[in-house]
Amino acid sequence: MKTYLDCYPCLMRQALQASRFANLSESAQQSILKSVMESLSELPEGTSPPVIAQLIHRIVRAESGHNDPYRAVKITSTQNALNLYDRLRIQIDEAIDPIDLAIRLSIAGNIIDFGISDHYDLEDSIHRVMTKPLAVNDIENLKTRLKTIKSLLYLGDNSGETVFDRLLIETLVKHYQLPVTYVVRGSATINDVTYLEATEAGLDKVCSEIIDNGSDAPGTLLDDCSSDFVTRFKHAELIIAKGQGNFESLSEVDAPLFFLLQAKCNVIANELGVQEFDLIVKGPKG
Amino acid sequence: MKTYLDCYPCLMRQALQASRFANLSESAQQSILKSVMESLSELPEGTSPPVIAQLIHRIVRAESGHNDPYRAVKITSTQNALNLYDRLRIQIDEAIDPIDLAIRLSIAGNIIDFGISDHYDLEDSIHRVMTKPLAVNDIENLKTRLKTIKSLLYLGDNSGETVFDRLLIETLVKHYQLPVTYVVRGSATINDVTYLEATEAGLDKVCSEIIDNGSDAPGTLLDDCSSDFVTRFKHAELIIAKGQGNFESLSEVDAPLFFLLQAKCNVIANELGVQEFDLIVKGPKG
Q1: Residues of chain B contacting A29 with CB distance shorter than 8 Å
Q2: Residue A262, SS3 per DSSP
Q3: The 3-state secondary structure of chain B, one letter per residue
Q4: Contact at 8 Å (CB) between A123 and A112?
Q5: How high is the ipTM of this complex?
Q6: Among A151, A161, A166, B264, which has the minimal tally of Cβ within 10 Å of its Cβ?
Q7: Residue A1: helix, strand or coil by DSSP?
Q8: Around Cβ A124, how many Cβ atoms within 10 Å?
């Protein structure tokens, strides 16, 4: 997905937020905004938002000497989500359609996105996924495919959302006896999940393996990922890709991808032909 | 008030919105964003937001050849507000403290600000001013001063908000027998009131005169205003200044100013030491 003009102010806001998370001085914050404006002024056509975001967060890390400015909020987000784990586990297990509910809840967790906002309402998000119809609903198609595959590649997105991914993965393992490989970012970027936060959410207990994609982009830019990961991606029978960053970077890639996300900004909503905050399970065309 | 770093993304958003109101092509929109980024990169220290906004809207008007891209929404906003006029007039006249209610309602009208957002909820705004304590409340001080003066200078802000200004001015004229001079912008900028929209709201019927400030800034930049207006400003016994743009441009000016506004963004809220959407009647210090 290309970077729309609406992304410009949003990326500026994100750069400012990141600079503040990294405790940069006001003059350093201003200098980062200038760098971002320079990049936006010279943006090659068709560049996707995670490419700019990757650059922004690299600059912030370099300027601040802080290799993970979002570490504290990642810990808090994971803990907040873990506090809900027992209750949600029971709700899924007792549901008429546990797969459907686990998929919906994994989308609820997608609200924990510091690329969009520095506050989120998890209970509201859970309420919405339980009561609102999906705006794009390929759940039945996803279920059908899950029955036929031997393994699943699962691209994580945000820390804390990981706990909701764990609930879904546990449910898939139980119902389909599927080995699941969970993919994390190669290193810290925004509040995205790295190996550390995946284990903090307990994903190591339920996945057959956790691998990283070798990239520090807040998305999955295949050109920027390790060859090991790209090989796994290319040979995957089925890929679940969580969140906006993965959608923005993979929406035009030809692969057996199911995108699970909330459309948390008007750009993504327009791209998907839905309303803001609509819930999405979008499978491959055809 | 200086331009804070948080204003950068907001001014970009505003430039994009204005470009779209002016029906500019996507490439023209992009070129305007580039101009804005260039201006923001070279911003002299202490420049106030209305200075940049003035520049943005000048560029949009020049690029589009459209001298008032917000004319349609100004007409609609005025009409929406006029539809409420009779009901609110009765509510004020029957109130225990008509002055207090009229002041509050004039602040309700300040929600109609296309510099902040392209949608607003007038009924919600009216409900808030009627039920919520003011975060900064110099109403008693304002009432005391109103009793002692011979004339009032009233700086308007947004079209549609004008109808709420009219309700307040009618109330002041009735209770204090005060001649009121209503000040509009010199020419169109965002959805700010010009002479045309002031008369559409019926302000010509209740004010002793309507004058313009000679400037196309969405605020009152004294250096940019006509000498006639500046003379009137300097000799005013009391000035009511509506809205954020007037606050941003006059907050450091030594004059008998009462600012009536809603703090519609976190920058203004922080500057005033209040919460977003708090209601403000702020008089001169001491």
Answers
A1: 5
A2: strand
A3: CCCCCCHHHHHHHHHHHHHHHCCCCHHHHHHHHHHHHHHHHCCCCCCCHHHHHHHHHHHHHHHHCCCCCCHHHHHHHHHHHHHHHHHHHHHHHHCCCHHHHHHHHHHHHHHCCCCCCCCCCHHHHHHHHHHCCCCEECHHHHHHHHHHCCCEEEECCECCHHHHHHHHHHHHHHHHCCCEEEEECCCCCCCECCHHHHHHCCHHHHCCEEEECCCCCCCCCHHHCCHHHHHHHHHCCCEEEEHHHHHHHHCCCCCCEEEEEECCCHHHHHHHCCCCCCEEEECCCC
A4: no
A5: 0.89
A6: A151
A7: coil
A8: 11
Nearest to B41 among A9, A16, A37 (CB): A37
- Which 3 state secondary structure label does DSSP give A95? coil
The full set of domain ranges for chain A reads 7-64, 71-282
Nearest CA in chain A to B5: A30
CB A92 within 8 A of CB A118: no
Q: Given the DSSP bridges, would you call strands B152-155 and A180-184 parallel, antiparallel or unpaired?
A: unpaired
Query: Which amino acid type is present at position B64?
Result: S
User: Does CATH number 3.40.50.1820 belong to domain B75-282?
Assistant: no
Query: In a structure prediction context, what are the per-residue pLDDT tens digits for chain A, which is 286 residues long?
Result: 999 999 999 999 999 999 999 999 999 999 999 999 999 999 898 899 999 999 999 999 998 899 999 999 999 999 999 999 999 999 999 999 999 999 999 999 999 999 998 899 999 999 999 999 999 999 999 999 999 999 999 999 999 999 999 999 999 999 999 999 999 999 999 999 999 999 999 999 999 999 999 999 999 999 999 999 999 999 999 999 999 999 999 999 999 999 999 999 999 999 999 999 999 999 997 6
Structure tokens at A22: 């990294």
Chain B interface with A: residues with Cβ < 8 Å: 5-6, 8-10, 12-13, 16, 26, 29-30, 33-34, 37-38, 40-41
Burial-class residue B243 by CB neighbours within 10 Å (0-12, 13-18, 19+). buried
Cα separations in angstroms, B239 against B88, B225, B231, B242, B285: 24, 16, 13, 10, 14
